[in-house]
Design brief:
single chain, Rossmann fold, five-stranded parallel β-sheet, globular
C-alpha cells in the first residue's frame, strides 16, 4: 500500500478549545491552501449525525452554511474521490487497546513496518484502509480546489498516526498548545459544560458539582496535550512544529514565518472559500480581521480542587511555561 501525493497536509493536533479553528484558517489563507476542518468527522456531518455542541452560532453544516450533503464543494470532492462520504470509514475502526497498539507500533517501527505487519494483522489493515480513504479525500480536495496544501484541524492524535502510517512524506504536524486553565474554562461554560456534566452523570449516576466538571475538563486537556507532545517527539524535525496559541495571537505573521520556514511553504495571496467542518462556530466567518487571545477565562476560571489529576495538570501547565 503505497501513496504518492502531489500535495502537503498540515495536521493540527491538540486539545479541544485550543484555538485550532483560527490557526487553521490563518494557515490556509496565508499559504493558499484549503482548511477542511475536522475531516475525520465528515461522515457524521454528511449523515447529519455530528452531534455538535449547540453553543452560540454553532451549526451542523459546512462553513459555507450548507449541510454537507447539499454542499457543492463536498459533493465534488465525493465524486472526485469516488467515495460516499456518509458511508466511508474515515476515522479509527478499532477498540481502545488496539488503537494503543497501533500508535505504539507506528512510533517505534514507522510506516514501512506498519504496512508490512498489516498483511498479517487485520486490525492494522483496517486502520490503513481508513488512512487510504482519507488520502483519497485529501487528493480530491486538492484536485477540486486546485491547491497543494490542505490544513486539517482534527486534533485527534490517533488520526495523525493513521495518516503518518499511510503517507509519512506528505503530512506535517503542528502540536498546538494553550494554557490549560483557559481550555478548562472554555470547556466548562455554557452548553459545553452541560455536555460534560451529562457525561459524568451517565457514568456515575450522580449530578456532578461544578468542581467535578472543571476537573473533567482539565483532565481532558492534560490527556490531549500529552498525546500531542508525544506525537511531536516521534515525528522527524523537518515535519513538526510546536505552536503556542498565545504566541500566535501576539504575533501571527512572526509565528507563520516560523512555520513557513520549517515546512518549506510558500506565501500566496489567493484565498479559497472555506468549507471546513467541525471546530469552533467561528469557522462560519471567512477570515479574521483581528486576532487576539481570549483572556476572559482569567476573570471566570473555575476553582479546581486539589485532586491528583488537577495537581498533575497544573504541573504540566507550568512545565509548558504557563505561570499562575
Amino acid at each position: 500500500m503505497t501513496f504518492e501525493t502531489g500535495f502537503s497536509i498540515v495536521y493540527i493536533a491538540g486539545a479541544s478549545r485550543s484555538g485550532s479553528t483560527v490557526i487553521e484558517d490563518y494557515l490556509a489563507r496565508r499559504f493558499g491552501g484549503v482548511a477542511c476542518g475536522e475531516l475525520y468527522r465528515i461522515s457524521q456531518f454528511a449523515k447529519g449525525h455530528a452531534r455538535i455542541v449547540l453553543e452560540d452560532g454553532a451549526q451542523e453544516t459546512c462553513a459555507c452554511g450548507a449541510p454537507v450533503s447539499e454542499c457543492s464543494f463536498w459533493h465534488a470532492v465525493s465524486k472526485e474521490a469516488e467515495l460516499d462520504l456518509a458511508q466511508s470509514a474515515l476515522r479509527s475502526q478499532l477498540g481502545r487497546w488496539q488503537r494503543a497498539w497501533f500508535r505504539l507500533f507506528v512510533r517505534l517501527f514507522g510506516s514501512r513496518m506498519t504496512k508490512w505487519t498489516s498483511k498479517l494483522f487485520p486490525p492494522f489493515k483496517r486502520e490503513l484502509e481508513v488512512g487510504a480513504n482519507c488520502l483519497r479525500v485529501y487528493r480530491a480536495i486538492s484536485c477540486v480546489a486546485k491547491v497543494n496544501l490542505i490544513v486539517d484541524s482534527s486534533k485527534q492524535t490517533h488520526q495523525y498516526y493513521i495518516l503518518k502510517a499511510v503517507a509519512p512524506e506528505s503530512i506535517r504536524l503542528i502540536t498546538l498548545l494553550r494554557d490549560g486553565r483557559a481550555v478548562s474554562a472554555s470547556m466548562t461554560k455554557g452548553p459545553r459544560g452541560e455536555a460534560i456534566a451529562s457525561k459524568i452523570k451517565a457514568r456515575t449516576g450522580l449530578s456532578p458539582a461544578p468542581k467535578d466538571v472543571a476537573e473533567e475538563a482539565f483532565r481532558a486537556w492534560m490527556h490531549s496535550t500529552l498525546n500531542g507532545l508525544l506525537a511531536f517527539a516521534f515525528t522527524s524535525r523537518r515535519r513538526r512544529a510546536l505552536l503556542y496559541y498565545e504566541a500566535f495571537c501576539d504575533d501571527p505573521p512572526g509565528e507563520m514565518q516560523r512555520i513557513e520556514r520549517r515546512f518549506s511553504l510558500t506565501e500566496q495571496n489567493h484565498v479559497h472559500e472555506s468549507h471546513a467542518i467541525g471546530g469552533s462556530p467561528s469557522r462560519h466567518t471567512v477570515g479574521f480581521d483581528v486576532i487576539c487571545a481570549d483572556n476572559s477565562w482569567k476573570r471566570q476560571a473555575p476553582t479546581h480542587e486539589k485532586s491528583l489529576s488537577t495537581i498533575s495538570a497544573r504541573f504540566l501547565n507550568r512545565l509548558l511555561g504557563y505561570r499562575e
